Each structure stands twice: as C-alpha cells, then as structure tokens.
UniProtKB/TrEMBL annotation, chains A, B:
GO terms for molecular function: DNA-binding transcription factor activity; transcription cis-regulatory region binding. Residues 1-21 are annotated as: Disordered. It comes from the Bacteria. This is Transcriptional regulator, TetR family. Residues 12-21 have a biased composition (Basic and acidic residues). Residues 21-81 form the HTH tetR-type domain. Pfam families: TetR_N (PF00440). Residues 44-63 bind DNA.
C-alpha cells in the first residue's frame, strides 16, 4: 500500500483536514441560504445542521453559538464572493460604468441579504454586536480596496477616497432598496447616472 | 353648563376622538422606541401596550396584530418626521450642502432604525411584506417629493430625477452604516463630497 511513500499518519491528517474543510463549507453555505430564506429568527443551529447534512455534534464542534456560526458564514461567503467578483472583473469591460455595475450587482445579492439579517440582529445583541463590528471593519476594508483596484483609482489624490466611499454607500443603499421587490430596472438607471459622475471625478 | 352652546353628545364625541388620537399617538411612539431598543423580536404587542401605558384591550381595539401596529407606527412617525424636516428646512440654510446634510441626518435617525427592523422582518413574512411594500411606495414618493422641493429642483429637466434618486439611495446607505457604530464623522465627509457633485448637476 505504498506506506513508505506517505506515512499513514500524514495521510490520515490530510484526509481529516479535507473533511473538516468540507464540513465547514457545507455549514457556511447552508447558513447563508437559511438566512436568506427564513431570516435571523428562522436560522437556528439545528436547522442549519439539517440543511447542511452535518451532525449536530460536528456542527457544535466547529461553532458553539448561532452568532459564531452566522458571523463565520458571512465572512466565509463574503471572502468567496470577493474572489468571484475579482474573477468576473478580469473578464469584464474596464469602463467605469461596467465596474460600478459589477459592484452594485455584487451588493444586491443574497450575501448582502444574509449580512443584513446579521447586522440588524447584532444591533440589539451586545455580544454579537462586538463580533459584527470587527467583521464590518475587515469586510469594509476589503471591499474598499477592491473597489479602488477595479476603478483603477489612486486614493492619494484629493477627492478619490470620498468618491469611492460614496460609491460604496450608494450601492449599499441600492441593495437595501432591492430587499422587498426586484429593483433591477431602477438600479440600472441610478448606476448609469452615478458612473457618469464618477468618471468625471476619477 | 352652557349645554345650549354645545350639545353633550357632540362634546362627548369630541372628547372621545381626542382620547382615541392620544391613545394611538402613545402606541405609535412606544412602538418605534421599542423597535429601536429591542428590535423586531422584542417588539411584542404586550410590551408596547405596557410602555405606552395603554390597556391591552384598547390596544387590540386599534391594532389586531404586531404587523399592523408596527406598520402604522412607522407610517405615523414617518409622516411626523417629514413634517419636522420641512419645518427645520424652512429655518435652515438653503445651500445644496445644508439640504443634503439635513436629508442624510434625517435618515440616520431612530425612525430609519425602526423602519429597517420592519423591512427586514417583512422580507420573510409574506403578509407583512404586502403591507410594507405599500408603505414603502407611499413613503418613497413622499421623501422623493420632499427632497425635490428642498433642493429646489425640477425633475422635468434631464438627469434631475436620477440625481435626486441617487441622493436618496446614498443617504439610505449612509444610514445603514450608522446602525452599529456612530458614523457621524465619515458621513459628514461623504455628504460634503456629494453635495459638491450634486450642485454641479442641478
């Protein structure tokens, strides 16, 4: 069995690490799906374990509370979405309009909806609030850096920092307007208008 | 007792109408306060009746469900806030910057926080969703009209409609960023930036 090429210990640890990663990934995706479908109040650890097809024991081993599970899920899916956005940006048009549209559509997504559930719950839950504030700072920095990169902008120039921050506030406002009804058409108008403004600025 | 000047029936009905209005006002304000302090899940009809100092019977007479109570409260306090904003705008500076600041601060308020709780709850509650969509359309029209008036803008001119809508999406995004931590300082920067852009536009 070629044990001389790879000791059983190493192989077992590798397989275990893969399984752990796979379990976590399933839990993360099930959590976001559950937040979108049933909201914060319907996202219990039991419900998520069931959706993910993971035993309660395995789930509790990784995440002790609903707050931990949900914050980890938003962070994990957030990081994956940022990577997906970067890949999409590489093959997309490089115009300001195309980039603002990409960023706006990225925000008007299930991930934003899941994050909104977490943010609103955190407002009235002191322990969760601390956790989410950290997550907010990390995700905020990452999305700001990505927007800067995609817009090919230099924020050491005057006004650029404000312009990029305003763009991110705008797309969050647009994402909010998309929660109860499909706002795609109106969003396209506002995005086109904003991109024109921004292009003159940058 | 001067009953010849005002029949007892009319006087009683008048007093009753005043009491009803006063009861409703107390319930509306207690509801918004409760949403801000305890969120949607902590805003029960029992809790609101207690805060308002209104009997459960009187409350149930006016609002049968939590959804009815909360939607009415957001609409009532929303209308009152719009009036307060109009009064403030009359005595404030008329510059684009002063107006955008007024609108942004109006949104980064307890009323927005209460509305956000209602909107997020409505997303996963079909009955509430229908109700909130109507409210969203009414409030949206009202705030759009008010912004147009305060900015002294004419939306029959090209681009003005998009500019005002983008302003409202932006201030909603800014309000969202103010939920977990005080974002006043950053907001002031973004507002100043946007007011400069908008002034060139209008």
């Amino acid at each position: 069995m070629f044990v001389w090429r790879n000791t059983p210990g190493v192989e077992t640890r590798q397989r275990q690490a893969d399984r752990t990663r796979e379990t976590k990934r399933k839990l993360m995706e099930a959590t976001v799906e559950c937040l979108v479908e049933r909201g914060w109040s319907g996202t219990t650890t039991t419900e998520v374990a069931e959706r993910a097809g993971v035993s309660r024991g395995a789930q509790l081993h990784h995440f002790r509370t609903r707050g931990e599970l949900v914050a980890a899920a938003v962070e994990h899916v957030g990081a994956e979405s940022v990577e997906a956005l970067k890949r999409r940006a590489q093959v997309a048009e490089k115009s300001t309009h195309a980039v603002v549209e990409l960023i706006a559509d990225f925000h008007a997504s299930d991930l934003f909806t899941a994050a909104l559930e977490l943010w609103v719950a955190a407002r009235t839950d002191p322990e969760l609030r601390e956790q989410v504030l950290e997550l907010q700072a990390r995700l905020g920095r990452e999305v700001y850096g990505l927007a800067l990169e995609l817009l090919d902008a230099d924020d050491s120039k005057p006004g650029v920092r404000d312009a990029v921050q305003a763009t991110l506030d705008l797309v969050r406002g647009l994402a909010l307007a998309n929660q109860l009804a499909d706002d795609t058409k109106r969003r396209a108008h506002v995005v086109r208008y904003w991109a024109r403004m921004l292009e003159e600025q940058l």
